[in-house]
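Handout, page 2. Input:
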Amino acid sequence: KTLASRMPPEAEEKGISSSMIGLIFSGYPIAASISSPIFGKYCSKIGRKKLLFVGCFLEASSTLGFSSVVFLDKNWFVVVGLLNRLVQGLGAGAMGTATYAIVSCTYPDRMESVLGLVNTLSALGMMLGPLAGSGLYALGGLVLLFVTYGLFFMACMPLLALMIPKDKPYVKKELNISAKEVFKVRGIWMDGLVVILAISSLSFLNPTLSNHLSGYKVDPSISGILFTVPTFSYALMILMMNYMNISRKILMMVGLGITALADLTIGPWGYMGLPHELWVSILGLVIFGLGLCLCILPALPDMVSEGEAHLTMYDSEQVSDFLSGILNSETFIGEMVGPPLAGVLTDYIGFENAEAVIAFSLIGYLLVFGVFSGALFGRKATKGEQLLVENEMVATDTKKEEVLL
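Output:
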């Protein structure tokens, strides 16, 4: 977000068109979404911790690289800017995949709570980053901003090395996980579509919310603060989920419904009968954070459970690593889909109706997900699930025998 707010004005001063600026920025999600599944496939062979540090180094290096664009002419600005965004995307793909993989393999019994902590800290960084960036930019422009961020990133790497637990022994054998086999599992790709739709709904607001709030005569600086409202309700829902004894798929269904309600409220949609006042849009943003959390947080644990149940021919940790890459990729796909969709729909039918289109898309998929994912009507246990249950029963019987002895 710091880069998005500071780079376009610099590029425009050099005579770079808006479409070319968009191309530069698109390099990040494209590189991240393509590289994440590849990193996921080879994560356990490379080493999760090692992959995380590769990602950190690429992010830090590309951030430092952006400090040079100030001194470049128009053409070189585009080349160096796009190259740095692609490298940043590779770094994000590596870091995100490694983070999800470390959580899913190191904390399998506490995956939701640990992922909640990771997401909360990530959201905190999204809030504090632009604030710190504004101060640095005021003091020394883009050069000071990107050099400080890049060096800070590198300075944190030794601390990460001490805090992150060692990897389990790496898998040395040839990896043969097939994406085709993975996506034959209905529950996996249906969970993934929930994430894509939820993130698309969030990224839909990036280019449109500020203009909508300006209709209420909200100052741009205040608009930036209002963008953080869903972050607080997201964190609140993380705490509430610790007390919910509900299946993950039901939670995702509820999340889709709440997110749809939020989209109808942010506008607000005319048929909702709500007044067109600022407090209504803020209420919608609060609701949005609650629904987003329910859509995203249960997704990886549920995908891993589906994978362990259906993909018994593969090593369970390799499956978990691969699905970590898939989930990271789906997140960036959602980030790519939302903004252009927002631009087209808002231009043709207005913000309120565009949000309603997104809301009814979520409701439509909610119904499909409920029927076909097994969330509402259940499904027969697979051989893998039966085997897991049998193994647990055997382990329980063995413990009882040891206690008696």
